[in-house]
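Input sequence (389 aa), recorded before submission:
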Amino acid sequence: MTLQAPPSTRRRRTMRVAAGALAAVAVLTGPPAFAAAESSRPAGTRDTVQRHLGRLVSEDGFPGVLASVRGADGRVRDYTAGPVPRDGQVRIGSNTKTFTAVVVLQLVGEGRIDLDATVEHYLPGVVRGNGNDGGKITVRQLLQQTSGLSDYDDVLFTKPQDIVDKSHSYYQPRRLVDAALTNAPHFTPGAKWEYSNTNYVLAGLIVEQVTERPIGEEITNRVIRPLGLRDTYWPGVGEQRLRGTHPRGYVAVAPGAEWVDVTDMDPSLGWAAGQLVSTPDELRTFFEALVGGRLLKPAQQAAMMTTVPAPGFEPTGEYAYGLGIARHELPCGGDAWGHGGDIQGFETRNLVTRDGRSAVVAVTALPTGEQMLADVNESVETALCATDH
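Predicted structure, token format:
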């Protein structure tokens, strides 16, 4: 029987089977060396953020944690817990969607894409069959996750072991879309919100159709290079190893099972929905620039920040989804913007406030249940709300 996790633990996977394979019934304990790992900060530190990150290792069982935080004082601090390098490269999964959305919206600002034009207009004949109709889905609905299209990973990954066995498989973007279209749509376009990686693969295909260039190149030239992100990159076709200094990334195929090292893997499963590599510091820099209005014209910035309710985006808290970015009400008051991402070996969560605070937390394994995920989210909130860091 295929293990299925509740939507709140599946909604942001580059492959939603990841959470299904790590079904939420128990906390996975890592190998003894990881479980006993000490924080890289001095013993006895009173730093609230460091204590929360340390508990992700000592109590939740994550192999390691990396974080980058800009506090209310404007100072940036890097944190680690467990045996990981400071600010190492990690796979950022669905944070890639925000980069893709920025490129689409830049093209909107240049008059080359219309948010309210249909998928059929840009990709004739691509979204058809089993009740799917690209003539009824707009570009805006793709970016806002309101298209109703099925998620391709529900088709391609059906067994817990697939998370390991298919980690070296290469997927062309059209194969991902065609897999999703073997299912009927989940609802009429625009009727509700539901997370689907298929939306962003189609957005990437639209970018390539309009620009006649690869989506990875467009992201690099329009976002990565202008921001000077030297450790952020789009892996090439077939590129499975991380290029720079990085931690190891792990998964498990069942609660209580041993960690399996999946650091080397083919990220093509995510493509425009989840392929990028970055570091906590550079991912934080990207979201600061985006929320600060440095990447989009005012009209497109306003469109990106126009949200709809996003029930189940996280297991706890209130979230609303814009165009590739989400708004979250902080427990200490005010709101923050971010996304987050999951892919084999890594999970990242991040938030940025308009007053300059920001935090990115990356753990080096996918969580085995909602509590582990909730604790990662809480660590980001703590980093933004703490007063003694």
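Checked by second reader. The first strand starts at residue 65 and ends at 70.
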